[in-house]
Design brief:
There is one protein chain. Helix content is 40%, strand content 2%. The chain has a domain at 79-201: Peroxidase, domain 1, CATH 1.10.520. It has 13 helices and two strands; from the N terminus they run H-H-H-H-H-H-H-H-E-H-E-H-H-H-H. Helix 8 (223-230) packs across helix 13 (325-339). The chain is mainly α and 363 residues long. The protein starts with a helix and ends in a 24-residue tail after the last helix. The structure holds protoporphyrin IX containing FE.
Length: 363
């Protein structure tokens, strides 16, 4: 017990080090490169609650080139407030959908709103028809915000920025205002969107830890970002088909047997429908660090969630996030901003769409 507590405190201290060092992305949480004993996974967590760490004043991560906080202040004042109001009106499930949609946009061709493009004659198979995107939700919130913004200042606010603000705002509301960060803006919208590019870029729920690390690294995100962003699985739902391979009679899953039996029941469908269940059995609509407690207690849906305990570095990050809600909230905001900088487009290779579902002219 004493060893476990010491390991936890050391992780928190090293985490704080990475918070105060803005250039530390490449190092992960640092200090645990090797040689330290791996804390054994507890049967139930937390064993004890460590003293909460103190936090440095919020020093924003350097935004991706061309992006800046307050970008619309002099171009369309009040733009961010319009998006926030549209998100506020959505239910908790749709808010969760917006957080996921931002991730799915950024991982395929960069953050460029390519995920929002609807099928047309010229492009019958856009990203939104790719398998991982069939369960996305929240498009109507983006359209609503865009319609209001086009009225107020036509041709100014990109759909990509609306989605980035919406992902930020949904996080804010679902965390009871605790995840509160500034999102740099100035992204342009792309005009290429292909369903065929989704599976190769979006990690599957059966990914192992190496595949997860590799797929995030391919987007310039490190293992810290990957583990920290995975905390979004403390909100929203999943279709049973995304995890049914882990339910009994499968003997390969290490899912908690009580949860597995409950999910098995929830997934029974007389008419063969693909039912949905909440991802976080405990606080389903709160974006909080409960996810990490669930990982430690083997009460998560996906093999990709469970995989975070399969490597020493990711396991330590799970412990750290489980130990400090505040620290994880801060790191989540940082990682969202970093994700929002993936392969951002400019006026040279993008446009400001008039409608988020369609490019301004068919190419
Ligand atoms: C680490 C790799 C990840 C994998 C393998 C993964 C996979 C999945 C899957 C399979 C679902 C359920 C889809 C369904 O069946 O309906 C889901 C839901 C969700 N994911 Fe992830 N995801 C990952 C990372 C992320 C990230 C980085 C975020 C956001 C920061 C995110 C946010 C969400 C949210 C909010 C939901 C619930 C959506 C809703 O209720 O509509 N996920 N994810």
């Amino acid at each position: 017990m004493a060893n476990k507590l010491a390991a936890l405190i050391a992780v928190i201290i090293s985490l704080l080090g990475s918070v105060s060092c803005q250039a530390s992305y490449g190092y992960g949480y640092g200090g645990y490169g090797g040689g330290n004993p791996t804390p054994p996974p507890p049967s139930s967590y937390p064993p004890t609650s460590p003293r909460p760490p103190t936090y440095p004043p919020t020093t924003p991560s350097p935004p991706a080139a061309g992006l800046r906080v307050g970008y619309y202040d002099d171009k369309c004042s009040g733009a961010e407030a319009i998006v926030r109001e549209a998100v506020r009106g959505a239910d908790a499930g749709v808010k969760a959908g917006l957080v996921r949609m931002f991730f799915h946009d950024c991982f395929v061709r960069g953050c460029d709103a390519s995920v929002l493009l609807k099928p047309t004659e010229a492009n019958p198979q856009p990203e939104m028809l790719g398998i991982p995107n069939l369960s996305l939700r929240g498009f109507e919130v983006i359209d609503k915000a865009k319609a209001a913004l086009e009225k107020k200042c036509p041709g100014i606010v990109s759909c990509t920025d609306i989605l980035a603000f919406a992902g930020r705002d949904a996080s804010y509301f679902l965390s009871s205002y605790a995840i509160d960060f500034k999102m740099p803006a100035g992204r342009y919208d792309g005009n290429v969107s292909l369903a065929s590019e989704t599976l190769a870029n979006l990690p599957p729920p059966f990914a192992d830890v190496k595949q997860l690390k590799d797929m995030f690294a391919a987007k310039g995100l490190d293992t810290v970002d990957m583990v920290v962003l995975s905390g979004a699985h403390s909100i929203g739902r999943s279709h049973c088909s995304s995890f049914s391979g882990r339910l009994p009679p499968s003997n390969t899953s290490d899912m908690d047997p009580t949860l597995a039996a409950k999910l098995k029941g929830d997934c029974v469908s007389p008419n063969g429908a693909d039912n949905t269940v909440m991802q976080d059995y405990k606080t389903p609509n709160e974006l909080d660090n409960q996810y990490y407690l669930n990982v430690l207690n083997h009460k998560v849906l996906f093999a990709s969630d469970a995989a975070l305990l399969k490597a020493t570095d990711t396991m330590r990050l799970v412990y750290a996030a489980a130990a400090s809600q505040k620290l994880w909230q801060y790191k989540f905001g940082e990682a969202m901003v970093k994700m929002g900088g993936i392969e951002v487009k400019t006026a040279a290779n993008g446009e400001i769409r008039k409608m988020c579902g369609f490019v301004n002219k068919a190419y």
